[in-house]
Amino acid sequence: MNQRRRTAVRRELEELNKPDLELQYSPSRWSPRMSADDVIRAHVSALKSGTERARSVTQTLMDVPYGEAEGEKLDVYLPSSSSPDVPLVIYFHGGYWQFLSKDESGFLAVPLVQKGAVVVAVGYSIAPKGDMDLMVSQVRRSVVSVIQQYSHISGLYLCGHSAGAHLAAMVLSTDWTQYDVSPQIKGAFLVSGIYDLQPILSTYVNEPLKMTEEVALRNSPSHFLSQLKVSSASCDITVTVAQNDSPEFRKQSEEYFKALESAGLKVSFEDVSDTDHFSIIEQLVDENYLLTKLLLKMMGKS
């Protein structure tokens, strides 16, 4: 991002006072279904029950290490068939980089595994134990490890929700020259994400993260479009947003989509009706849900 754009962003943020920003970046306060506290409780319950079901009906490999740190582990959900045409979906969970884990992140596996896909849920060191630089490094290394362990797959796909969509976008923007492999990521599903971290610096979200402006800038996908064009030029990217996401969350997705489109990348935009920040991802348990169908179609498994 050039200096003129940074100045414009800073000016926009100054026009929003702190209470306004706090509200805009509090997704639970925008759900029409229930109160803020209740929607978060319901979200965690939905993810846990979906993951428990996935673990009970699929073959799994739990706590597969991709690094040496305690949190650097994967959960793998496997199809029963041994087809050579096996796509693999890597899922990065949300939770504002400080909540949730891979242990609630297998919920989307059932309809995908039933169609012959492998699903990998990634653990990473959430704040305050991990900082933003570490988390971005971890998810990148998790992708390298998956590629090394599953070299026979027909295609690699990313899916991330909220903070996880930010991390997936950072993976797409990786300079792979410092790694031993160069993942050919065929598709990415970015759900209700944040692609510019500057607006959250002065909000409660940053309290456990302790990001400086410098850290926020070097970990904002919107600043690395030129690298994404090099690393993920052929990737099919879908940017999705919930109807009842906050205006700022919706703006983040809309602006990132437009930037990708202007850069000549293969990108589409889905504004999902009758959803909020949480139900938009929870419904991936349903094989008939719009985003499940789109994800399967992206993989050629519809």
Characterization of the model:
The mean pLDDT is 93. Helix content is 40%, strand content 17%. The chain is built from 12 helices and 8 strands. It starts with a helix and ends with a helix. Strand 3, helix 4 and strand 4 form a beta-alpha-beta unit. Strands 1-2-4-3-5-6-7-8 form an 8-stranded mixed beta sheet, sandwiched between helices. With 302 residues, it is an alpha/beta fold. It is globular and about 55 Å long. The chain has helices at 3-15, 18-24, 36-57, 109-113, 132-149, 163-172, 206-209, 213-218, 225-231, 247-262, 279-282, 290-298, and strands spanning 59-65, 73-78, 87-92, 118-122, 155-161, 185-191, 236-242, 267-272.
How large a portion of the residues is in β-strands, by DSSP E? 15-25%
Helicity level: 40-55%
N/C terminus separation: 38 Å
> Quick one: biggest sheet?
8 strands, mixed
What is the approximate shape? Answer: globular
The chain-level mean pLDDT equals: 93
Run of helices and strands: HHHEEEHEHEHEHHHEHEHH
Computed CA radius of gyration, to the nearest angstrom:
18 Å
- Spans of at least 5 consecutive residues whose pLDDT stays below 50 are none
Strand tally is 8
Structural class, judged by helices and strands? alpha/beta
Number of helices: 12
Major beta sheet, strand line-up:
1-2-4-3-5-6-7-8
